[in-house]
Specification:
The protein is an alpha+beta fold. It has helices at about 85, 135-150, 185-190, 200-205, 260-265, 280-290, 315-325, 325-330, 365-375, 395-410, 420-430, 435-440, 455-460, 475-485, 490-510; strands at about 60-65, 95, 105, 110, 120-125, 165-170, 175-180, 220-225, 230-235, 250-255, 275, 290-305, 340, 385-390, 415-420, 440-450, 510-525, 525-530, 545. The longest helix has 18 residues, at about 490-510.
């Protein structure tokens, strides 16, 4: 009989206490009481915070670094560390993802029929674009249709699979009709998937989202300039329809890459703040400014490719998960800004879903023996298992994959770490056959959920043809549970179906959850205020940024 991960000691809890590039939270500290010291990351994700200390004064300008340069400033094609961190301050969505991961009204108020197959969004009559024009139902219908039926990259369209129609049903009203309820879609309209751009402007600017033709949105900041390869500048919208409360007039985004380059710029005050600063530099950064560990929707995974070979065998994936000392990886490769992966998605995301969790953190004598047994059951394969990474992105990825290689060798697997170029690495995401160019069995990815809902990840694994199901994982029973969960409006039924799906998926590990990564924020001692939780892709975080004194 196969040794399954479910035979390990597992803790099952009804309600966990709150944890390319792909794109949190109890109300403690920054919201209700003192902010925990940023000197070290708490060992329990429930102690990770939602907010940095509030700003006390105004600033003319702040310099901020992005992990990547934006590919395009278009919310319909926004799902990465470059564009999303900028657009979250420019473009508003029908609903709002708050720093505690709750969903509330944004540009619009939602009313639904009893079976939630008709979603009516009524836009606030005060809402205005930067050019002063009102935000209308036509603008919203146009924006959502661009996401539902994209002409470019389909970043969000898979979430719209239940949609049968999107129409402006009033001057300030847009209505979505669905073939069945979809509570996940309702949440997704608090992300870039629900962002509204001005229809007339967008249609008149065919290069919409590029440096030549920036977006026209309604947020608390407005676009100023984009110098390709150098910087993006935004400025406060002093005619903001909600009222101007932002304390910082201008933000200049750079896109310095590489751990050493970023750390030097941050410690030298050339850059005053950054989300997800380099883990290798956290020691120096703590001495120079403030490092905060926020509640998260981030996991670092080993993602199998579609390459035929040992990593396509669930027993080999289970064995690697058991063999790797994930606690050591969290402490070394991520400098303590992570916790060992115990469940498929971050603990913060489960809500009422009961997660399957491994009590062990890998690498113990008992776990190594179980791993070796799994390798024997899989036929002790000798074929090389090649793990690939673009070495210029972050050292934490290289160190993690190298640790996986050593863990695999310790249980009898033929493991290889292979550095590849950035273009080849992106090919692993964008091309189903991208693995062929590098002979890669798997790659590392710091992956985020867009909202705190495990279905946001499970729906990928439930559909072999989903563009993000990079390994083509398939399991008929799990897919059926996921399909049923997605189509119900009863939260109790939905939670139970997702709990069952989680247990089945955890036994097979479509992706290996190595560590749960904190939403880490670095601020020098002059600035403070933005949320610490992982909402900076969709929440107007810069509106809270200001002087520390």
């Amino acid at each position: 009989m196969n040794v399954r991960l479910s035979t390990l000691p597992v803790v099952r809890r009804r309600r966990p206490i709150l944890a390319l590039i792909a794109a949190g939270m109890v109300t403690i500290s920054g919201c209700a009481g003192g902010t925990p010291s940023p000197a070290s990351a708490p060992a329990d994700a429930s102690q990770w915070i939602t907010s940095t200390p509030p700003a006390k004064g105004a600033l003319d300008s702040v310099s901020w670094n992005l992990m990547l340069e934006p590919a395009k400033l278009d919310p319909a094609e926004s799902a990465n560390y470059g564009e999303s961190v900028v657009l979250s301050n420019l473009c508003e969505s029908l609903q709002t993802l708050n720093p505690d991961f709750s969903i509330s009204d944004g540009l619009a108020r939602l009313a639904a029929n009893e079976d939630r197959t008709k979603l009516v969004y009524t836009i606030d009559p005060k809402a205005r674009f930067w050019d002063g024009k009102p935000v209308t139902g036509e603008d919203a219908a146009y924006s959502l249709t661009r996401v539902w039926k994209p002409t470019g990259v389909p970043y969000w369209s898979t979430y719209f699979s239940a949609v049968t129609g999107i129409h402006a049903t009033g001057e300030r009203e847009v209505t979505l009709t669905l073939r069945h309820a979809d509570l996940l879609l309702e949440k997704l309209l608090a992300t870039s998937a629900g962002a509204v751009v001005e229809k007339a402007y967008s249609k008149a600017h065919p290069a919409f989202g590029t440096p030549k033709d920036p977006p026209m949105c309604s947020g608390p900041y407005r676009f100023v300039s984009w110098k390709a390869g150098s910087s993006v500048t935004i400025e406060r919208n002093d005619a903001y329809w909600r009222g101007v409360t932002a304390k910082t007039k201008k933000i200049v985004f750079s896109f310095l890459q590489g751990d050493a380059t970023q750390t030097t710029a941050l410690t030298g005050d050339a850059v005053q703040g950054m989300f997800q600063p380099p883990f290798t530099g956290l020691g120096r950064l703590k001495e120079h400014g403030n490092v905060y560990y926020g509640k998260t929707l981030l996991t670092f995974y080993l993602v199998p490719s579609k390459k035929p070979g040992p990593l396509q065998d669930a027993r080999i994936r289970q064995a690697l998960f058991l063999a790797l000392d994930r606690k050591a990886v969290a402490g070394t490769a991520f400098s303590g800004a992570a916790l060992p992966g115990r469940s498929l998605v971050p603990s913060t995301a489960y809500g009422g879903v009961t997660p399957a969790r491994s009590e062990g953190t890998g690498g113990s004598p008992a776990e190594l023996e179980q791993a070796k047994e799994l390798v024997r059951q899989a036929g002790s394969p000798k074929q090389p298992i090649v793990l690939v990474a673009a070495t210029g992105i972050t050292e934490s990825m290289n160190q993690t994959l190298q640790a996986l290689v050593e863990a695999g060798k310790a249980i009898g697997l033929n493991m290889v770490f292979k550095p590849i170029t950035l273009g080849q690495y992106y090919g692993m995401f964008g091309d189903p056959k991208g693995w062929k160019a590098v002979d890669g069995d798997g790659f590392g990815s710091q992956w985020n959920l867009p909202v705190a809902d495990p279905l946001a990840q499970f729906h990928i694994w439930g559909a072999p043809d989903d563009p993000s199901n990079y390994g083509g994982f398939t399991d008929r029973q799990a897919s059926e549970l996921i399909k049923r969960a997605r189509a119900t409006s009863d939260t109790g039924t939905r939670d139970e179906l997702l709990s069952q799906a989680d247990r089945r998926l955890f036994d097979q590990l479509p992706w290996l959850p190595i560590v749960e990564v904190s939403s880490t924020v670095y601020l020098n001692r002059e600035v403070t205020g933005p949320p610490a939780s992982f909402v900076n892709w969709f929440y107007p975080w810069a509106a809270h940024l200001g002087a520390a004194k």
